[in-house]
Amino acid sequence: MVEDAGLVGLATIAVAAFEAGDTILTAVGVALPEPTMYTIQYDEGTHVEVDGPMRHLAHSRAPNARIVFGTAARVRPVATRAIAPRDRLSFDYCATEWDMAAKFDCCCGAPTCRGAVGGFRHLAATSPHLAAALAASAASPYIVRRAAAVELQSDAVPASAPSAAAVPA
Ligand SMILES: [Zn+2]
Fold it and tell me: Of 6, 75, 81, 145, which one has the greatest count of Cβ atoms within 10 A?
């Protein structure tokens, strides 16, 4: 269910208990070419605009759910730990968004919270170890692919330097 959570706007609250691995709900959205405040990124150039309770899942660096995609427009939050009725549902927006349309300052209170939330791209730039941990756990297939490409690029620079230096002058 969705309720007014004051300063943070509307929040989706669990109405039942869930165990880790449970599908909390299934939302079928509309695939858009550009991100909006209410989209979840499926792939490069595919952003799923969701409505209903799915729209108001909060961001957290210590969330209780992660996003699983079916087809491009079918989105399922899956519990990553036990959830009690009345718990606010959350996932890490950086697990699905590369570069968010609506960046904001987070107040989730998690020890790993980095304040500004702008997407995986920004997390990787400011907190590479947190980004790596996210890519290895809850990140979407798209983010994992994109993160691997970034790592390959940054690895390529130091790897080429020693081999060039090893060539006798
Ligand atoms: Zn936070």
Answer: 75
What is the band of 4 on the pLDDT scale with cuts at 50, 70, 90?
confident
Rg for the chain (alpha carbons), in Å? Answer: 18
> Model's pTM, two decimal places?
0.84
DSSP 2: E
What separation in Å is there between the alpha carbon of 156 and the centre of ligand 1?
Answer: 32
Q: How far is CA 58 from the centre of its chain?
A: 11
Q: What is the pLDDT of residue 3?
A: 72
Strands 90-91 and 58-59: parallel
Q: Where are the domains positioned within the chain?
A: 2-158
CA of 105 to the centre of ligand 1 (A): 8
Taking a 5 Å cut-off on Cβ, the residues next to ion ligand 1 are 61, 106, 108, 113
CATH superfamily of 2-158: SET domain (2.170.270.10)
Ligand 1 center to 161 CA (angstroms): 38
